[in-house]
Specification:
The chain has 408 residues and is an alpha+beta fold. The chain contains eight helices and 21 strands. It has a six-stranded antiparallel beta barrel. A six-stranded mixed sheet has the order 16-17-18-19-21-20. A four-stranded antiparallel sheet has the order 9-10-15-14. The model has no long low-confidence stretch (mean pLDDT 94).
């Protein structure tokens, strides 16, 4: 750092006017590719929210701000700068501009997080927030209490009705931690000293949500709409992770889903509203076709078996050796092996043995045959299958293994 002493805490313009994204400030410290300003509208990374990006200008000179961070001990916001120019020296007046698109999306995520968490809490107070994540479009709430899909739907409905009922105005206030008991915080905080509270008040003047938070939020909670739950999953420590989107990122997602759904519906000659019914019909049709195919496969298996006369081996045991046109026929052919008979079959590189003879272990026979011809396989005493490296040699190897088992 090139300044002789630690700078004073940065005046946080992002807290005072979260939608004012242009400002004037002066460099008060510089070093290691970072600048500290006397005032800044850039939000520094923290509380699950990404730091802002944007630009700093001095006349015709311009530096990109690639990230921002808060030094909690000093209250100084540091701006990481990049560009071909050397960083401006201490004392330089600058014009700052926060990337509006990035900031507004971050604000929508954070606002949506507060409101959705409150909606879950109203559905069931046991759904307490353990952690949040807002680093990308897919944001997360880790909740206790094991919320279900039905709970998530109820929370969405509750929040949607609140947004439709009227404006949810943002209010912020900084109070000593000794006065926090006067506020119905949704989530307890261990912060001490002065604590910034973020509150959303409904049309009737009632507080919808109160949280200790240093982030940036939209002046109207309604601007975070739509808030859409994308899914739930169980995570460690008995928590449930709720993934959601808010604001323009949710709208873009839903629009994309609708476009894809409409295109899919058109391919089935129906509307998006009729797609579920059409898919249901296709599922029933597929089930009927699968049952018919299974019947035909069984009939074909019986015909193929009948076309191959059995040979009698030691002890009066019947042995059938079959070459099948499809691997899918292995199970119906071998699974139907009757008592007193052993069957072996190959279909391409797949092979198997079925046994209805107690003295002949199908798994042991197949392993013996594949040890001699190359391949791997196994199964149960009555049915075993595998893959052969030399399928043309497998049937002869099975015959030898069966005879050995019966004479052994």
């Amino acid at each position: 750092m090139t300044s002789s002493a630690l700078p004073a805490p940065t005046r946080r313009l992002d807290h005072a006017e979260p939608l004012e994204l242009h400002f004037r400030a002066q460099v008060v410290a510089a070093g290691d590719g970072e600048l500290a300003l006397d005032a800044s509208a850039f939000y520094p990374q923290g509380g699950g929210q990404n730091g802002d990006q944007g630009w700093l200008r001095a006349g015709e000179q311009r530096w990109a701000v690639t990230d921002t961070r808060l030094d909690k001990a000093s209250g100084v916001v540091w701006h990481a700068v990049a560009g071909d120019l050397p960083p401006p020296p201490v004392g330089t007046p600058l014009d700052g501009e926060v990337d509006a698109t990035r900031r507004l999306r971050q604000m929508a995520r954070h606002t949506g997080e507060h409101l959705l968490a409150q909606a879950f809490a109203r559905v069931n107070p046991a759904f307490e927030v353990a952690a949040v994540g807002m680093r990308g479009p897919d944001c997360t709430l880790d909740l206790g209490g094991g919320p279900s899909e039905a709970d998530a739907q109820a929370s969405e409905v509750l929040l949607r009705e609140m947004m439709v009922a009227g404006p949810l105005h943002l209010e912020t206030v900084t109070v000593p931690h000794t006065e926090l008991h006067a506020y119905a915080l949704r989530r307890a905080t261990s912060l001490t000293g002065d604590v910034r509270l973020v509150m959303f008040r409904d049309r009737a003047g009632e507080l919808f949500d109160v949280s200790a938070c240093a982030g940036t939020h939209l002046p109207l909670g309604n601007l975070a709409a739509p808030v859409t739950v994308l899914g739930l999953e169980r995570v460690k420590a008995g928590l449930t992770r709720v993934t959601f989107r808010a604001g323009p990122e949710a709208a873009e997602y839903l629009a994309g889903v609708y476009r894809d759904t409409r295109a899919l519906a058109q391919s089935f000659s129906t509307s998006p509203a009729g797609l579920a019914e059409r898919i249901d019909a296709l599922r029933r049709e597929r089930g009927a076709l699968a049952a018919e195919a299974e019947q035909l496969r069984s009939a074909l298996a019986e015909a193929l078996v009948a076309a191959v006369p059995p040979e009698e081996v030691a002890g009066g045991v019947s042995l059938r050796l079959l070459t099948l046109p499809q691997g899918e026929l292995l199970t119906p052919v071998l699974g139907a092996t009757p008592a007193g008979e052993v069957r072996a079959a190959v279909a391409g590189t797949r092979c198997g043995v079925g046994s209805g003879v107690a003295e002949v272990d199908a798994s042991a026979v197949l392993r013996s045959a594949l040890a001699a011809t190359g391949g791997r396989g196994g199964g149960r005493p009555e049915l075993a299958q595998g893959q052969a490296e030399q399928p043309q040699e497998v049937l002869a190897a099975v015959r030898r293994a069966v005879v050995q088992a019966l004479e052994g």
